Amino acid sequence: MIRRLIRKLSAIPESPQRIALAFAAGVFLGVMPGVGPAAALLVAFLFHLSKVATVLGVLATNSWTTALLYTLSYRFGLWSGQLEKPLEWRLVLSFEEGWHEELARVAPTVIFGGMLAALVLAGVSYLVARVAVTHYKEIRLHRQK
């Protein structure tokens, strides 16, 4: 799956830096709670980024890793000191009265933590995508010779 993703990214007719930037923007948006491919297309259009790479970045994070990313966002939010008392999981998971107020109470923490996690993961994904795309484009160039 990762090889296929790198092949798709390296097939985009742009520089590795631009591809990696678009992919990292997609990863950033994918980590943010509630953001998806439509937002990625809008950001790609507004900032003249590769639409394919940006959507691939969202899909690489958003579809399969939602629970992990929300947990990571919550943990980053807790680490930042945005929340006085942790989420009461028992209340939320049992759907007892007040469960939605409990979620609303931690939502700002999750969103802030999501921004922190998104920045970290976007930075890492930029570096990895840039190296991988550069490598694959070089391989493709040598094969064509």
The overall average pLDDT, rounded, is: 84
| Derived structural class | mainly alpha
Form type = elongated
Number of strands: 0
Could you estimate the helical fraction of the residues in percent?
over 70%
The ordered H/E elements are HHHHHHH
What is the number of helical segments per DSSP (H or I, 4+ residues)? 7
**Proportion of β residues?**
under 5%
Cα distance, first to last residue? 28 Å
The low-pLDDT segments are: none
Largest sheet: none
Report the C-alpha radius of gyration, rounded. Answer: 18 Å
Structural features, described:
- It contains seven helices and no strands.
- It is mainly α.
- Helix 2 packs across helix 3, helix 2 runs parallel beside helix 4 and helix 5 packs across helix 7.
- The longest helix is centred in the last third of the chain and has 46 residues, at 99-144.
